[in-house]
Amino acid sequence: MPQMSPLMWFSLFILFSITLILFNQLNFFSYKINIIKSLKQKMIKSKNLIWKW
Fold first, then answer.
1. What's the pLDDT score for residue 53?
2. CA 1 to chain CA centroid, nearest Å
3. How far is CA 32 from CA 36, 37, 38, in A?
4. Most buried of 3, 38, 50, 52 (most Cβ within 10 A)?
5. Where is the signal peptide (predicted)?
6. What pLDDT sits at residue 45?
């Protein structure tokens, strides 16, 4: 099996790094948070914690 030159290892590393970064960015920006729903749930949870004696 022939050995790879250091330049080939470096280009392979760059290729995988770019692929990883692109995959993470696509994954991050494709997720959409519903801020209004999460705020309403927090309000409901906080109301349940208020005790009236």
1. 64
2. 38
3. 12, 12, 12
4. 38
5. none
6. 57
| DSSP-assigned states of every residue in 1-51 | -PPPPHHHHHHHHHHHHHHHHHHHHHHHHH----HHHHHHHHHHHHHHH--
pTM recorded for the entire structure? 0.53
Block means of pLDDT (10 residues each) for the chain, 53 residues, are 82 96 91 64 59 64
Tokens 């948070």 correspond to: 33
In angstroms and rounded to an integer, the radius of gyration of the C-alpha atoms of the chain is: 24
Angle at 39 between CA 33 and CA 45, to 5 degrees: 125
